[in-house]
Amino acid sequence: MIVFPNAKINIGLNVVEKRSDGFHNIESIFYPIMDLFDVLEIVENEDLAFKSTGIEIPGDDDSNLCLKAFHLIKADFNIRNVNIHLHKNIPIGAGLGGGSSDGAFMLKSLNELFELNLTSVQLVKYAKQLGSDCAFFIDNVPVYAYNKGDDFEFIDLDLSSYEIKIEYPKIHIGTKEAYTGIVPVSSQKNLKELINQPIENWKSSIINDFEKSVIPQYPLVEELKQKMYLDGAIFASMTGSGSAVYGFFNK
Fold first, then answer.
1. 186 and 147, same domain (yes or no)
2. What's the mean pLDDT when you consider all of the chain?
3. pLDDT at 190 (0 to 100)
C-alpha cells in the first residue's frame, strides 16, 4: 500500500493561554496542502522494519510517528508486522505538519490494510496520542482548531481558486524554541469570523503569534514574507511555529 501524507498550513494562529499540563491552548485555521506530500509505503512483513529516504529525519527511528502509530494499533489489534518505507519530502521543523501527517496516514493505512473498520472518531482518538496536529490529518479538511490544536470545528473554506506558494528558508525551528518569548493572550477577534472576510482583508486582521518570537531571531522569515507581497501575494504568513512562509496569489 502506498499513500501520500500531505502538508498543511495555519491561517492565523493565536496562543491563547498556558495550560496546567504545560501545553498551550491555541486557535488557528488548519488548511490542507495536497500538492506537497511525503510518500509512505506499507507492506505486510514477517518482521517490523522501517527505513526513510529523502530529507534526513533527525532522532532515532523508534521516535518516528509512523512506528509509534503502528505500536498503538498493534497494542489493541492482532495485526501482522509491516515493512515501512517513508520518503520524506515535506521540510522538517517548518510548521507544515509533515511528521504529524505521516503518523496519521499510518493509522489510516493500517486501518485499511488490516480491515479494522475503525471510524474516523476512533482514529482521531489514536491520533491525539501521537501529537496535537496528528488528529487533523484523519479527516484532512479545513478546520477551526482550538484547545491544544487537536479539537476541531469543520469550516467551509475553499481556496482552490488561488495559487498557494510555499517558501522554506531551510531553518529548523523546534516547537519549544518557538514558544520562547510568547506571552499568551486571549484573542479579541473571532478567527472564525475573520476568515469569512474577503481574503484582501486578511493582511490587516489575521496574524500568527509565533512571528513575534521567530522573526527577531530569523529575519529571513520576514524577508520571505515581504517578498511574497512584492511578488503580488494577496495574503502571506509564516505557518505554524515556522519557518516556512506561504502566500496566496491570484491564478
1. no
2. 94
3. 87
pLDDT in tens, 38-73: 999 999 999 999 999 999 998 888 899 999 999 999
Q: Residue 229: its pLDDT value, please?
A: 98
The number of C-alpha atoms within 13 Å of 45 and in the hemisphere containing its C-beta is: 13
Query: Residue type for 102, please?
Result: D
Catalytic residue, chosen from 38, 102, 133, 209, is 133
| Residue 228: exposure state from Cβ atoms within 10 A (0-12, 13-18, ≥19) | buried
Helix (H, G, I), strand (E, B) or coil at 8: strand
Neighbours of 118 (CB within 10 A): 21
Residues paired with residue 5 on neighbouring β-strands, in sequence order: none
For residues 126 and 138, the answer to whether their CB atoms sit within 8 Å is no
Residue 8 annotated among the catalytic residues of the structure: yes
Distance CA 244, CA 184 (A): 22
Range of the domain at 236: 159-250
Q: Which of 127, 153, 179 delimits the end of a domain?
A: 153
> Does the annotation count 68 as an active-site position?
no
First to last CA, the chain: 34
Cβ(166)–Cβ(36) under 8 Å? yes
Catalytic residue, from 8, 88, 108, 225: name it: 8
Q: pLDDT (tens digit, 9 = 90+) per residue, 79-127?
A: 999 999 999 999 998 999 999 999 999 999 999 999 999 999 999 999 9
